[in-house]
Amino acid sequence: MNKVSLTALAREQLETARAASSGRSSHTVYGGHEHSLRQTLIALKAGSALDDHESPGEATLYVLQGRVRVTDADAGWEGSPGDHIVIPLSRHGLQALEDSVVLLTVVKRVGPHV
């Protein structure tokens, strides 16, 4: 069993994001290339973004802190603490409207069929 304080990790990653030229920082909470389930804590300084990118497959975003906006070609969704957003399967982006921390959960296929 492994226990991680998302509150403490969010605080650390947000400090790192504020100091980074990109305005963002991330840390893998669980998973990696050998796992189907991957969870990544992402911290974004206000005004920073993850530019449009292809969908990783089934994914959700849980807002821990701040306010974010997820957009695709057709729509946009704002999230604040406690909001759970299903990531669109289309190309999409993420913008931080305030200093923000989110937990990205992705399920990917692993093994020789990939």
TrEMBL record:
<dbReference type="InterPro" id="IPR011051">
    <property type="entry name" value="RmlC_Cupin_sf"/>
</dbReference>
<protein>
    <submittedName>
        <fullName>LuxR family transcriptional regulator</fullName>
    </submittedName>
</protein>
<dbReference type="InterPro" id="IPR014710">
    <property type="entry name" value="RmlC-like_jellyroll"/>
</dbReference>
